[in-house]
Amino acid sequence: MCPAFGGINCARDDDSSTAVGYQNFYAPVAVRIATCLPGLAPLKLCEGGQARSGYRQQRRRKLLPWYNKLLPLKGPFFVAAINISTQQTHMKNILLFMTAITVCLGCNSKKEEPSSKKDSSISGAVLPSAEIQIKSALLAAPLEKRDSCTVYGYSADKELILLRQGTNELICLADNPDVPEFSVACYVRELEPFMKRGRELRKQGIKDQQLFDERDKEVKEGTLQMPKQPAALYVYSAKDKDFDPSTGEVKNGYLRYVIYIPFATAASTGLPEKPSANGMPWIMDPGTYRAHIMINP
To answer: Across the chain, how many H-helices and E-strands are there?
Structure first.
């Protein structure tokens, strides 16, 4: 409800659901309704007449806070001085109603403006420069290997592209700006067919169990090759608020380790299928093409 309209035609008692403003049309009262520029003094409800003075004072105490809420609003200055007497006609009552509605519409338009500006300012995640993407992607790699890793990142149109060709066995991926939370990864190059196929399927809208099943079928058919020896994956993650895309700095980052051993089982590795202590290695997806050892420090 517009504050300027409260108490004239649509105000309701705090302890009642009965509209009480309409009968006030027939009481002698002058009301100033205003939408004020910042800095103006609070409004005062000017009352006239002598009948039911106790009731008027009670209504005044209830209505003044609504009027004073108009002060922070920005916009043109409007003041409508409306004098109503017991002899006024029904037409004047209608004019009063229309005046209050006009002021109310002005209030609503000003209230909606900040939210519309906020919505328009959300244009998607900021894409860091290629240099920053490389810097942040390498946070997942072992320190002694960072200088020679191959790094993939994202172009302006959000396509994955080669940012730096490396010379060692590791491939690193920069953070995907379209996915919530910061996450970069590095893995041994023998895992690239598996990782690349996963990206292709997700781009087609295939995910979760359907993605698992599709790659499983391709592995069994021999069209998707998995490593024949243990293969490492490093994942470094953080909250979005802890990543600075302008510098590549990350606070409170978390590094976890994964070692892929296709078709390994708890029996073949001696590892549990669930960890029983912090940082304890355990095996996930045992007996499948994507069986891997998890190490969460």
So the answer is: 6, 10
